[in-house]
Amino acid sequence: MRNVERSVALTDSVNRALREHLLKGDGEEDLLFALWTPSSGAFRFTSLIHTPIPPLAGDRQRHGNASFNTQYFERVCKLAASQPGCGIAFMHSHLGPGWQGMSDDDLRAELKIAGATAGLTDLPLVGLTVGTDATWSARMWPYAGNKEYRREWCTSVRSVGTQLRVNFMDAMRTQPVFRELFKRTVTVWGERNHATMARLRIGIVGLGSVGSLVAEMLARMGLTSFVLIDFDEVQAHNLDRLIGATQADIGVLKVAVAERQISQSATADRVEVRAVPYSVAEESGYRAALDCDVIFSCVDRPRARSILNHLAYAHLIPVIDGGIDVRFKRGEFSGVDWQLQTVAPGRACLECLGTFLPSDVATEIEGKLDDPSYLRGLPADHRLKRNENVFPFSANLASLEVLHLVALVTGVGGMTDFGVQRYRYLPGTIETDVERTCRTGCEYVELTAQGDRYFQLFGRDLSAEAARDRQQSQADSNSMGGISRWLNRLRFWRTK
Predict the structure, then answer these.
(1) Helix (H) or strand (E) holding 191
(2) Among 140, 403, 417, 447, which residue carries the largest CB count within 10 Å?
(3) What sign does the CA torsion over 14, 38, 89, 34 have?
(4) 441 vs 260: CA distance, rounded Å
(5) What is the residue-wise DSSP string for 303-338?
(6) Is 150 within 8 Å of 168 (Cβ atoms)?
(7) Is the omega angle on the peptide bond into residue 124 within 30 degrees of 0, that is, cis?
(8) Whose CA is closest to 318, among 156, 154, 136, 161?
(9) Residue 196: CB partners within 8 Å, gap ≥ 6?
(10) Local confidence pLDDT in tens for the 496 residues of the chain
């Protein structure tokens, strides 16, 4: 599929290093090159900036404006050639605040090197400008034919770490219109923070009890863009905890119910919902997740968690994850905990936090978690057999997850990171751990901002395929039911 949106992302640590070089406060502009790797979603192509290449003596001139010498660009090209899969980014500072346009000198400088960059790396040149208030603006220079390169503006530049900072090009993603419907919401964290949060594209993976509640809350808060990823349909045992679902929805895809609920509850004047009836382990679901600015992980399977953990670091998409553990002793309820955490560069990852085991991921890929004979052989209290849950547990976890988003994006009250939070029903307390870090040599940390460069994790998902077979059978028996309409959407995604 042809990507229709472009963006740039970088870690908070790289962002700080770039700003320190480019914004010296001496009244002169400066410049810098860097390497980047691609992240290819269904509709968005993102440049992940990861390796600044500072100028050496004699590499550039600063004279109010700044210009680079040929030797600097040649050195950058040699480094890029030694790093397969990497593109070249050129960035400079402007003496003014906000999202920056381009002067004639800027255009000439980037056009001068766009062709050589594309020829060497097979990736477009990425140009960035930072203003005096640390706001980034960005564009790419793809080949347009006839030996010409065309500037394509990026929709946003994201800086990802303990806080998520996003600079939008207002002309491409307009600020939401203020409405009395969310007046009190805006009062809490301010119009500027609301304008940022409302424009984020929020992914929700898993539209069960927690995911459906997260969607409901965000719609009422005035958020405008959702990507819903879930292959499953509503079943009778879901009705006690799936918001918006009724008896009439049994057999309807969960993403369809959530899409309908968002449209009914939204307080924004215009809302975009993309429902993706696939697993995040399948290519359609995986690439849809790469289109998101933040992802809520509302899943109970280890494979999905491992994939989302990878996206948080390799693709710089923060993931807000939570899970519920209900325990029984001799057949009677003995306690329940629910834990949540936000994972992103600078924070401990899900594997290092112990939320999934690599061995369980391998077991799921083999299809054993859907094999009744395998599950019967496990102890009654085995972690892979715990799936009990009730609506109050889900409601509390979903609320805490949404508060993680508020802190991550707004920093309101000086809070950006709650760390790992665990609610214990007995004795009714919340424990917080803000000191956890990844183990030395964690592979997720080592892959930070590497995007598509080394590998991608999508493939077959046997659970999703079985669900589609089940849904097809239902559609065959009731061709006019809601499930048949969603099967048409499945066919649409398969062609992309």
Answers:
(1) helix 191-199
(2) 140
(3) positive
(4) 44
(5) HHHHHHHHHHHHS---EEEEEEEEEEETTEEEEEEE
(6) no
(7) no
(8) 161
(9) 166, 168, 409, 410
(10) 356 899 999 999 999 999 999 999 899 999 999 999 999 999 999 999 999 999 999 999 998 899 999 999 999 999 999 999 999 999 999 999 999 999 999 999 999 999 999 999 999 999 999 999 999 999 999 999 988 999 999 999 999 999 999 999 999 998 888 777 777 888 888 889 999 999 999 999 999 999 999 999 999 999 999 999 999 999 999 999 999 999 999 999 999 999 999 999 999 999 999 999 999 999 999 999 999 999 999 999 999 999 999 999 999 999 999 999 998 888 888 999 999 999 999 999 999 999 999 999 999 999 888 777 776 777 766 666 666 778 999 999 999 999 999 999 999 999 999 999 999 999 999 999 999 999 999 999 999 999 999 999 999 999 999 999 999 988 887 765 556 555 665 655 554 4
Give residue 13's identity as a one-letter amino acid code. Answer: S
Token couple for 38? 């691609």
Dihedrals phi, psi of 228, to nearest 5 degrees? -105, 120
3-state class (DSSP) for residue 160: strand
Helix (H) or strand (E) run with residue 274 in it? strand 272-276
- Which residues, including other chains, have CB under 8 Å from residue 376's CB and lie 6 or more apart? none
Token code pair at residue 424 = 């214990």
Residue 457 corresponds to which tokens in the numbers above? 């994790």
- C-alpha separations of 233 from 65, 229, 295, 435 in Å: 59, 12, 21, 39
Residue recorded with tokens 């001139």: 61
| Residue 243 neighbours by CB under 8 Å, 6+ apart | 209, 212, 213, 216, 261
pTM over 0.90: yes
Q: Map out the domains of the chain with their CATH numbers.
A: 5-168 (3.40.140.10), 184-490 (3.40.50.720)
User: Please, are residues 236 and 222 in contact by the beta-carbon 8 Å criterion?
Assistant: no
> Do 156 and 166 meet the contact criterion of CB atoms below 8 Å apart?
yes
Tokens in use for 432? 């917080």
Whether the CB-CB separation of 225 and 204 falls below 8 Å is answered with no
Cα–Cα distance, 153 to 162 (Å, whole number)? 27
Amino acid identity, residue 474?
A: Q
Q: In this structure, which amino acid lies at residue 8?
A: V
- Cα four-point dihedral sign 174, 179, 184, 187: positive
